[in-house]
Amino acid sequence: MTHYVVIGAGIVGLATAHRLTLDHPAAEVTVLEKEQQVGAHQTGHNSGVIHAGVYYAPGSLKARLCRAGSQSMVDFCTVHGIPVKVCGKLIVATEEGELPRLHALYERALANGLPVRMITPAQAREYEPEVSCVAALHVASTGIVDFGAVCTVLAGLVEKAGGQVRLGTRVTGLRQHGGRQVVQTTAGDVVADAVVNCAGLHADRVARMAGIDPPARIVPFRGEYLQLRADRRHLVRGLIYPVPDPRFPFLGVHLTRMIDGSVHAGPNAVLALAREGYRWGRVKPADIADFAGYPGLWRLARRHYRYGFGEVRRSLSKRRFAASLARLVPSITVADLEPCGAGVRAQAIRPNGDLVDDFLIVNRDRQVHVLNAPSPAATSSLEIAKHIVAQLSA
Question: Which residues lie below 8 Å from residue 327, measured CB to CB, with a gap of 6+?
Answer without folding.
Answer: 94, 132, 242
